[in-house]
Amino acid sequence: MDFKKFSSDANTFFNRALQKTEEAFKTSDKTLLDANLDNSIKQCEMRQRWASGLIQMVENVIQPNPAIRMEDMVLKGFDKKKERLTAGEVLGDSFARIGNELGSGTPHGTALVKVGQLESSLGQAERNMTQGIEDKYLSWLRTYVNETCKEAMVNLESKIALCLNCYSFFVCLLFKQKERSKLEEVRLDLDRTKTLLRRAKDDAAKKSHLEQQLNETQTLFNRQCDITRKAMDDCVSKFDEHKTICKSLLQTQLDYFQSCVEHVESTMHSL
C-alpha cells in the first residue's frame, strides 16, 4: 500500500469535509459558479427528474401491481426473470376450460373455447406490447438516467452521505468520479486554499506556498468548469432524442391495439 498517497487522499478528504462544514455554518466563503454553468446544471437536473418520473409512470401503467414490480426489480438485479401469464391469458384459460367441460362439440362449449383463444391472444398481444415498451422506450430512458445523467451529475454530497453509513461503504466505492463531482471537489480545494491563505496572517513562507497552490487550484477549477459545462450541455442535448423515442412508444401501442381489433373481429365473425 502507498501510505503517502493514502495519507494525502485522507488529508484531501478531510479538508474538503471541513470546508463544507464551515460553509454550512457561514464561517467560510464559497466560490459561486457562473450563471451559464449554473443554468446548464439546473437544466440537466431537470431533465433527469423528467426522465425518472416518466420511467416510474410508464412502469405503473404496464404493471399496476406494486408488489409484482418490486419482485421483478429484485429478480432483475440477480439477472433472473419470472415468466408470468397476463390477466388476459389467465382469463382465456378459464374460458377454454369451461368450454371443454361443457363439451367442445356443443355450440356453447365451442363458443367459450373460441372466446378463450381470443382472450389468450389478447393477453399475448399485451405481453408483446409490454416487452416492446421495455425494449424500445424504457431502456432508452434508463440509459439516459443511469449513464448519461449520472456521468454528469454524481455529486460530492451524495458520496459523503453514503460514506457516513458503514453499510453503504461498498456502494460508495462503486461511484465513479464524474464531471459534476470533480467540479465540486476542485471547488472545495480552491475555497479551502483561499480560507487557509486568509488565515495565514504573517507567516510569509506559508502564504507564499498557499498563493502558489491557489494559482494551481484556480487553474484546475477553471478547466473543470469548462469540462462540466460541456458534459451538462451534452446531457441536455441528448434528451432531445426523446422525441424520436416517443414515436417508438406510440408505434408499439398502435401495433397492440390494431392486433387486438383484428383478433376480436375475427372471433366475432366465427361465432
Tell me about this structure.
The protein has 271 residues and is mainly alpha-helical. The longest helix is centred in the middle third of the chain and has 47 residues, at 107-153. The chain is elongated. It has helices at residues 3-24, 35-62, 66-77, 87-102, 107-153, 156-163, 169-174, 179-199, 204-239, 242-270. It folds into 2 domains: 33-153 and 241-271, Substrate Binding Domain Of Dnak, Chain:A, Domain 2; 156-240. The protein contains 10 helices and no strands. InterPro entries: AH/BAR_dom_sf, BAR_dom.
Number of helices: 10
Q: N- to C-terminal separation? A: 79 Å
> In CATH, what is the homologous superfamily of the largest domain?
Arfaptin homology (AH) domain/BAR domain
Percent of sequence in beta strands: under 5%
- In N-to-C order, the SSE pattern is HHHHHHHHHH
Unreliable stretches covering 5 or more consecutive residues: 155-177
Major β-sheet, in short? none
Mean pLDDT: 85
- What's the architecture of the largest domain, going by CATH? Up-down Bundle
Query: Which class best fits the helix and strand makeup?
Result: mainly alpha
Total count of strands? 0
Which range best describes the helical content: under 10%, 10-25%, 25-40%, 40-55%, 55-70% or over 70%? over 70%
The oligomeric state of the chains shown is single chain
CATH class of the largest domain: Mainly Alpha
Write down the overall geometry.
Answer: elongated
Please state the CA-atom Rg, rounded to the nearest Å. Answer: 29 Å
Number of domains: 2
Look up the CATH topology of the largest domain.
Substrate Binding Domain Of Dnak, Chain:A, Domain 2
Domain BAR: 5-270
Organism: Fasciolopsis buskii
Protein name: BAR domain-containing protein
